[in-house]
Amino acid sequence: MAIAATSVFVGRxxxxxxxRDAMTEASRAHSQLVLVEGDAGIGKTTLVExxxxxxxxxxxxxxxxxxxxxxxxxxxxxxxxxSAGRGGKALRARAHVAIGLELLxxxxxxxxxxxxxxxxxxAHLTDAESLRALLFATRRLLTSRALIVLVVRGxxxxxxxxxxxxxxxxxxxxxxxxxxxxxxxxxxxxxxxxVAMTPDAAGRxxxxxxxxxxxxxxxxxxxxxxSRWQHxxxxxxxxxxxxQLVRRDLDRCxxxxxxxxxxxxxxxxxxxxxxxxxxxGLDHPLETLDxxxxxxxxxxEDRAGSAVxxxxxxxxxxxxxxxxxxxxxxxxxxxAAAIVHDTVAAMRHRVEAATIxxxxxxxxxxxxxxxxISRGAWSSAVTSLISASRLTPxxxxxxxxxxxxxxxMLYSGDGAAARRLAEQTGFPDGPRRDSVLAYLxxxxxxxxxxxxxxxxxxxxxxLVDDARLSATIAQRRAFLATARLRGHEAIEWAxxxxxxxxxxxxxxxxxxxxxxxxxxFIGWREDAHxxxxxxxxxxxxxxxxxxxxxxxxxxxxxxxxxxxxAARTAFETSAAESLERGLLVVAALSLSGLTRAEYxxxxxxxxxxxxxxxxxxxxxxxxxxxxxxxxxxxxxxPAARGDWPVAEAHVRAIHEQTPSFExxxxxxxxxxxxxxxxxxxxxxVLAGLAPLDAIELRExxxxxxFLPWHHLMAHALVDAGDVAAAELFIRSAGALAAARRNPLLxxxxxxxxxxxxxxxxxxxxxxxxxxxxxxxxxxxxxxxEHGLIELSHGQVLRRARERRAASAALLAAQRRFAELGAQPxxxxxxxxxxxxxxxxxxxxxxxxxALTPQELAVARLVISGMTNREVAEELMLxxxxxxxxxxxxxxxxxxxxxSDLRARARANELSL
Length: 912
Prior knowledge:
By secondary structure, the protein is mainly alpha-helical. Helix content is 65%, strand content 5%.
């Protein structure tokens, strides 16, 4: 029975309708994501191919995962860009955000009414960087006409990063799970292949193959040409595997053809023709290639002007490769390593060729991993570390390298993959295993488990004679202590880590942020700066992830000292450099700090831009704490402007994370209280801050540099009328501000003291306290805080019947609030001016609540002179999305062109 190996589509009508429905939604400018999952041979690719056949005049971008390219950075992205006629330019040297933006533009750049379909087959074999870049783009397609289809073998839970699964579970996503065919579909399959079966025979075949179309096809190929098998009670042949069928076809080929096919299998599912020819070493390779194509096992395609040898199915390549004798496989891989020009691919071939311990290869793998880590190429580093771990004969080295691979996965933001690797590695019970699992617990926000495991790891450290392991455990204890806001504990563990590995720069860099935070928590500012400056001032110190974290922490310290301009510079540098290297967590942390610095400096529209970028990167990093910090910082401007829905959405986003670590709980409390304060709900401010009282060790809680809440409590106690409690609190908080040399907090507390004294009907002392507050705030150049103090000063002076002085203070405050768009404060100010007998002309101020944060950010950058493409890159959006937002800006503000927008801004009719 000669059965062709072509794909046949049977059944799957429900799944096909689901793809059609997703396409319909996508064509309405509601981008869609569909994940297709199922076992090998279940018909996933056939389903998608059947769907694609229906799409006339649709732009289709295609890529296919390949085990041989699964660790080649952006291999799948390169396929997608080439299918769009855009050859990738130096993809491997760029961060995934930049590549994601290029994909975003490629997918969304078609005609207005055209839908782009992106298909990635065998996505489980796709390189991690391509998946991250495509996920970045998919998250930002928004109103684009685009359908993204990812096909994976197995389940998405096992094969795809968590970000994809979350997106598929959203309103614009779905997952199609392909199960076994029905018996009737087996009959259809037989008819399509020229085999008419009785219902009983189809049922037997269905039961025998478990409904797998691949296995049913394989059985039909092995059955005799007549139909007697359908009526005989004999057992159906058991297909040894699809691989065995492939090997049988290979056995029919001439020796030279086998040589060529095996060489192609070593190079991968797809390989450049010239590389295959060079690896075979045959005298007449082109004639042999024709015979290989005739075998049906592979074909030749033209891709961007280059001939590529492609296997008919990835399973065919796998079957041939796995059947190679070890000696021949090793020899071919050794030869391939010398042929390929890609460093990562050459390393993979060397690993595949290794049959005995190769110390030079182990050293090269470790060196390559270190280099990749320094560039932020986490998945490539993971590959080298895992390979080295599997090849080394030393158990301690095996565990160490696997540990470093897990850490690299965590730094890349793929906690789920790190957890799977930890489970698969099966560390023996001991301190190293506890250390790994504790680190995973930290990233999973499981406080109790992290504490338990790290305590046990430290207690059992003597079981492993490894000072560096002990230093690593101590460093993680320090990191955990900072997350729990425990200063002395962080310092103690950080110093232990350094003492255990005094000459290890990597340990020193990782420990430095925890040491600086610990010193700041207990009020030792100079020591905190020194812990950072030791590395920041050293030109020889590496400037990778840890180095940029130090710069971000430095920015927060500077903010606490009132050095806003210096803090802005630190945050800007850290954000730009870390983003260029793909360090999303550090970039998001830095942009959150920059948001606060811009807010304090009165550059509120710039703060909105920074906050939008911080949130985008926080989402991309999938780090819950960093995302909470981004939302907290983003809530400042809309709360001060009275844009309540936006501010409330930011606070709600933090609540939805159900935080457990103390720093996360504190951020939630401060964001909640800050919004309540902006809405003059003193009781809710006090309730919002209540969770801080439940934190046992208060060292970090009482550090106004990182947790600025004391002014909220002071003002809320005064506004709630609890003057006795307010006086005690302001006195103690004032001592803290003096000891920490925090001028902003000192000014805010002097402001609260003035309000308290006025509540006690002592206007003279109230005015004096407010003058003190103004004297402190004036050199800091913080317009909003300055205006709030001037407003209170004007209120006190008016009630003291000093109308002229009151009017001067209130007019100054009004100017500041109007320029900022601080509508609630502006309304209170103008009410006081009216009570003074003044009715100032209404200023032409924009209603900031008319624009969404995204629209405001777009308008701000357009006014700065950026093109739409530049705005898109800055905000990590597509150009079409920028155009969409800009159209809304024009409509809401009554403009028609960007020239109008810029001209009105230059004329100071807009404070953008």
